[in-house]
Amino acid sequence: MIALIGLLIGVALGLLLQPDVPIWLQPYLPIAIVAALDAMFGGLRARLEGVFDEKVFVVSFVGNTVIAALIVLLGDQLGVGSQLSTGVVVVLGIRIFANVAGIRRKLFGA
Amino acid sequence: MTAPQDPGGPGEPAGGGAGRGGPRAAGRRPGTRTPLLAGLLAGELPDPGYAAAAARRARRTGGPARRPGRLRGGGVLLVLVLTGTLIAVAGAEVRRGEPVAAQRRSRLIEEINARTAETDALRRRLDRLRAETGRRRAAALARSDAGRDARERLARAAAAAAAAPAGGEALVVTLDDAPRAGTDSPGPRDGAAAGARVYDRDLQILVNGLWAAGAEAIAVNGMRLTATTAIRSAGEAILVDYRPLTRPYEVTALGDPGRLRDAFAGSAADRRLRALKERHRIAYGTRRSPDARLPAAGPPRPRYAVPREGGGR
């Protein structure tokens, strides 16, 4: 519950403050969000399975977003930006899917 | 540091995480890994980070590995706030970008309209200047006998080349595709679900027949024909002078309507079109028009003429 409130506070903050994202950072926002979603679902699944660990959660969030953004940035420098971006999104999507499936099994299955 | 999930498979699930469960693994040879897609859709690929941390915790405290984790730690809260902010900011960026794109599009449309209007104005100016040139030429040529002769020859040549508008009584012949209703006209003319269509050679035959019957000037759907105008088809459309026409096709032939009709009536062109009408139900009709105005054809582009050297006289 507190976690949900925290999430909502974040959304409200973002909408209210309307921070100006620098131009060079804008293309990496969507990737960062997908990576953050992956960390969220991973954390949620771990919570449901009883193995949640705060340190792992925070580190996974930071690691995912930074690494995803870095991979796409590297790809942009090398000229394969869109392909690498697609690859990152696919892999993160698969992980999100896996975590959601685990959550589903926990909630509705066994 | 949590490593990104190894897509090859989970390896050893350590600790109390959800292991390979279910009947899916039962019949498998030991040592093979769960296939990626099969595994993920059954929820069998947990993040090893959490499992390893739980195992470490169990070793350290010596107690049960399972422990309801705290979802209210400071770090967790911070991460969640950050995520919410990220999502809100990205969503706002997308919304903010939309009006800019729409604005750009509408500006392009405005520019298109402005340029088209400019072109139209230029074309009108061209027509005006051309008319004025014609007037001055006529006035200059009228001043001497030789000039008047030249003017007559010029007028005849212009009429033959359709370089000047013409008007008068006319015979209007209409051709149209067969109505779509029935499929009872067999033959290669049939389209898939439509009736028979008018082909370009039908129009060609009609126009040639009208010339042969003595028409002075001919226009199709308002487009004047010269001696070299092409009537062709491209796909399903008929093009006159490389401009597409829409049906019905009205061919206006200037001349005495009665004489034209009599001369045209028994000709090969008329017979052929009648046959088309009977067999394929192509619409074919004629009527008189007491006053038809035909515009001039586009000016011919001279291919061999070169401008005179020196000032004109």
Task: List the defining traits of the structure above.
heterodimer; A: 110 residues; mainly alpha; 4 helices; globular; B: 313 residues; alpha+beta; Alpha-Beta Plaits; three-stranded antiparallel β-sheet; disordered N terminus
What's this entry about, in short?
Chain A: Keywords: Cell membrane, Membrane, Transmembrane, Transmembrane helix. The complex is a heterodimer of chains A (110) and B (313). Chain A is mainly α.
Reconstruct the topology from this structure.
The complex is a heterodimer of chains A (110) and B (313).
Chain A lengths: L1 H16 L11 H21 L4 H25 L2 H28 L2
Helix pairs in contact in A: 2-3, 2-4, 3-4
Chain B lengths: L35 H6 L6 H14 L12 H68 L3 H17 L4 E11 L23 H14 L3 E4 L2 E2 L6 E4 L2 E4 L2 E2 L4 E6 L2 H9 L2 H13 L2 E12 L19
Helix pairs in contact in B: 5-6, 5-7
How is this structure best described in words?
The complex is a heterodimer of chains A (110) and B (313). In chain A, 37% of the residues are buried. Chain A is globular. Chain A has four helices and no strands. Chain A is mainly α and 110 residues long. Chain A has one domain. The mean pLDDT of chain A is 88. Chain A starts with a helix and ends with a helix. Chain B has 313 residues and is an alpha+beta fold. Among the domains of chain B are: 89 residues; 127 residues, 2-Layer Sandwich (Alpha-Beta Plaits), CATH 3.30.70. In chain B, 45% of the residues lie in helices and 14% in strands. Chain B is built from seven helices and eight strands; from the N terminus they run H-H-H-H-E-H-E-E-E-E-E-E-H-H-E. In chain B, strands 3-2-7-1-8 form a five-stranded antiparallel sheet. Chain B has a three-stranded antiparallel sheet with strand order 4-5-6, with helices on one face. The longest helix of chain B is centred in the middle third of the chain and has 68 residues. Chain B is elongated, with a radius of gyration of 41 Å. Chains A and B meet through helix 1, helix 2, helix 3 and helix 4 of A and helix 1, helix 2 and helix 3 of B. Chain A: It is found in: Cell membrane. Chain A: Keywords: Cell membrane, Membrane, Transmembrane, Transmembrane helix.
